[in-house]
Protein: NmrA family protein
Organism: Ephemerocybe angulata
Amino acid sequence: MSTLITGGGSQTGIALAKLLRASGHPVLFASRSGRVPDGFESVKLDWSDPSTYEEAFKAPGHEVKYVYLQFGGIYDPLPAAKSLIELAVKRGVKRFVLMSASGESTEKGPNSFGTGAVHTYLDAQGLDYVALRPTWFIENFLNLYGKVIKEHNVIETSIPTGRIPFIGVDDIAQTAFDAIVNVEKLPNREPILVGADLLSHPEVAEALTKSLGRTIKHVTITKEELTNRYLAFGLPELYAKHLAMVCEKAENGAEEEHLNDPRTIVGKVGTREWIEKHKEAFAAL
């Protein structure tokens, strides 16, 4: 029984695929671009083109029984998600594993949106699902901030004091793997995933300073400045404002509060450990 991994070669998708293959479980990637890891089979799937959805269930040698849903930067994924989920159910899919997020808006219910609306839909349909709700990725210090850290030795955020239990991709992938292979191992079907450390951004800068042997500073920008940067990246205005609001809530302790939620699973990897392991990637330019 194969697992269909949507979103192509994403961080968690690749890590999950490797875990599944190592345990003898077939994997099929679904990607718009066709960029998937070497050695894995793939089919074309474009969220903006429902006519491509059927191909995921026609791949020779694959009987898709699990679907790993991830939507990248799509602000309103529900219309596309509903179409694929309805088709997948007709094709005999057993379980959906949704990559969601830890924020308030992703709680299932009438006020949810984004991936939270997909979570709500899966629940309302009575489907077998696991909704993964990770907090902020540790890897983003390299993927999002890495260039500025390497060139200017700074981290710029609007979160000067809020502490966050940053989560590593490998820990997320392990929970996704359990959701497919060992679902009984999970304490609940809507796990909030946090890392082993609880750090503010200035504390992350201190950890980088210690590991890299050069001073890394945290610089605070305003919510308005952050929103304008998102707009400059080409994000829709509502999405840009939403992301800035998420940062504002993190500054006010929203991510730290997850440590008191009984649904929370604490990962094995901490931010300081991750930085030390990847310090060569932050070498100054």
